[in-house]
């Protein structure tokens, strides 16, 4: 498959974006840096907003969700909002509080819990680094300070049990989350003091006083950087493609857009992998509140906000499942997206996705106008599939919406496989959407 230079460059840019985003906190920091570089003004969720036509703004929530928008026109009532939503989180292994564990054999481990639904065995035998957020004392107990940390070196590994000790391993085994998924950090002697190890590690890394540390939210992540692979470099092999790739595509589309209608919004929620029921998740009024505040800032009344909302359209962007080359029977008999075959529109009779005939037609027309091939994804009728932010957002924002995503293999693996052409194509569809 022939890969164009621009497609390869955009895919490599995605790999860099993912590498800078080992946690949801770092993903939002990476977004913020891109927005700052392009002259977007930061608004504060509890501050007074001064929103004007021609302005470019963003607001964060919990340092793990962000909404960026451009005010292209004051005629919101008729031109509405063009919204692309995605999420910053992904399945991961989180370090518990007071996690230090020392065995009599001298192994030192850190106690963990599983975030979301990863394919557990793909985390085995991989060098793991640590990243997350550290909370320290501030001027007031109600105003603690936060600092991001990225211990960018392989500090741990989760070793498999040798086949000689588990002869049935290749027949499939169930991994116990509390027993089998505990990372090994070091071997230590009898004089080793485990108490306070993790806080000392944080203090040394950030060069801060250990007494200033109140709490932390730390995650293990795969240390190995993503790469292009395949005979012609047509595949993207990387962690966290789901769903950082959609964050990357939508944000770049907003930054490149020359829209002159309504308001263009990129919304990156958090906690989709665990149900979205958080203050920074899709099952919150966060997006709706921001939209209403934009209208208030432009002097609109509540009726103007509702008129604008109902003249809006949302793309819920989350990855889709491609037909697996070794398990094709797991896919629907007639709707069978393939990697590098173009964006997939996601449909479900049970409304796991927001797509209906009207919204699907709108997105397909966008793709057709850009000569982008468009695929359809449905689960087998006897398989229960996942869901996305789309239906959850619809409980707070009852507007036309479509669920789409690039087809990938090995979704929720520690390392997923996507298509170079797909990422470029879905970006182009997002750009065209903003410029309609």
From TrEMBL:
Keywords: Aminopeptidase, Hydrolase, Metal-binding, Metalloprotease, Protease, Zinc. This is M18 family aminopeptidase. Its EC number is 3.4.11.-. It comes from Peptoclostridium litorale DSM 5388. Its cofactor is Zn(2+). The keyword Lipid metabolism does not apply. Belongs to the peptidase M18 family. GO terms for cellular component: cytoplasm. GO terms for molecular function: aminopeptidase activity; metallopeptidase activity; zinc ion binding. GO terms for biological process: proteolysis. PANTHER family: ASPARTYL AMINOPEPTIDASE. The lineage of its organism: Bacteria, Bacillati, Bacillota, Clostridia, Peptostreptococcales.
């Amino acid at each position: 498959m022939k890969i164009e230079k621009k497609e390869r460059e955009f895919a490599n840019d995605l790999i860099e974006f993912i590498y800078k985003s080992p946690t949801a906190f770092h993903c939002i920091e990476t977004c913020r840096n891109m927005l700052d570089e392009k002259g977007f003004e930061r608004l504060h969720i509890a501050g007074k907003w001064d929103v004007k036509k021609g302005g470019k703004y963003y607001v964060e929530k919990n340092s793990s969700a962000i909404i960026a928008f451009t005010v292209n026109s004051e005629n919101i009532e008729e031109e509405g909002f063009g919204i692309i939503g995605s999420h910053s989180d992904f399945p991961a292994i989180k370090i518990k509080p007071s996690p230090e564990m020392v065995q009599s054999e001298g192994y030192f481990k850190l106690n963990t819990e599983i975030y979301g639904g990863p394919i557990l065995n793909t985390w085995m035998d991989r060098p793991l680094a640590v990243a997350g957020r550290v909370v320290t004392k501030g001027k007031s107990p109600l105003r603690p300070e936060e600092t991001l940390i990225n211990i960018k070196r392989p500090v741990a590994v989760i070793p498999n049990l040798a086949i000689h000790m588990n002869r049935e391993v290749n027949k499939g085994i169930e991994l116990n989350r509390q027993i089998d998924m505990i990372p090994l950090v070091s071997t230590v002697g009898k004089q080793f003091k485990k108490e306070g190890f993790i806080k000392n590690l944080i203090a040394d890394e950030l060069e801060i006083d250990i007494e200033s540390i109140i709490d932390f939210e730390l995650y293990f992540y795969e240390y190995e950087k993503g790469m292009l692979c395949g005979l012609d470099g047509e595949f993207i092999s990387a962690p966290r493609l789901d769903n950082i790739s959609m964050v990357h595509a939508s944000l770049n589309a907003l930054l490149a857009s020359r829209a002159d209608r309504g308001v263009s919004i990129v919304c990156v929620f958090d906690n989709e992998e665990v149900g979205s029921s958080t203050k920074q998740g899709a099952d919150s009024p966060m997006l709706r509140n921001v939209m209403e505040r934009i209208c208030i800032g432009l002097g609109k009344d509540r009726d103007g906000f509702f008129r604008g909302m109902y003249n809006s359209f949302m793309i819920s962007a989350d990855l889709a499942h491609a037909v697996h080359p070794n398990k094709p029977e797991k896919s629907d008999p007639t709707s069978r997206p393939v990697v590098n075959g173009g964006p997939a529109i996601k449909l479900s009779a049970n409304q796991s996705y927001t797509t209906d005939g009207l919204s699907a037609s709108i997105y397909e027309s966008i793709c057709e106008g850009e000569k982008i091939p468009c695929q359809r994804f449905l689960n087998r009728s006897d398989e229960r599939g996942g869901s996305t932010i789309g239906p959850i957002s619809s409980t707070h924002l009852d507007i036309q919406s479509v669920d789409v995503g690039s087809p990938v293999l090995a979704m929720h693996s520690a390392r997923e496989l996507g298509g170079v052409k797909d990422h470029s194509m879905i970006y182009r569809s997002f750009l065209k959407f903003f410029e309609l």
